[in-house]
Design brief:
The chain is of the alpha/beta class and 104 residues long. The chain has one domain: Transcription Regulator spoIIAA (2-Layer Sandwich), CATH 3.30.750. It has two helices and four strands. A hairpin with a 2-residue loop joins strand 1 and strand 2. The radius of gyration is 13 Å and the shape is globular. It starts with 10 loop residues before the first strand and ends with a strand.
């Protein structure tokens, strides 16, 4: 799966009693369209959490939700600002947001 499939949750796992919803992002950070795609994907994940769509997965994971973004490329300055704003927003909703840059 990937960020380009905005209507699909890439991966769901359990970690430390939390449901972890992961996004795989293989795109460069030099395009505003990338930020819009990422925002749409995260919004879809939040909607899936809020509507209970993912509650059946890992029923023993009752300690909340984490959205994890796995990046192929390091974000530029605008990308970092964007990701930090997403983190604040998701945290205010009571969930966690993390991102990791994968090394080759």
């Amino acid at each position: 799966m990937s960020i380009e499939k905005k209507d699909i949750i890439d991966y769901i796992t359990e970690e430390n009693g939390k449901k972890v919803l992961s996004i795989s992002d293989h795109l460069q950070w030099d395009d505003m369209h990338h930020l819009l795609m990422l925002q749409e994907k995260i919004n879809m994940y939040l909607s899936a959490i809020e509507t209970g769509q993912v509650s059946d997965y890992y029923p023993n994971a009752t300690n909340g939700y984490v959205i994890c973004l796995y990046l192929k490329y390091e974000p530029d300055e605008q990308g970092i600002v964007f990701l930090e704003e997403i983190k604040k927003f998701v945290n205010k909703l009571g969930y966690e947001f993390k991102y990791t840059i994968l090394s080759e």
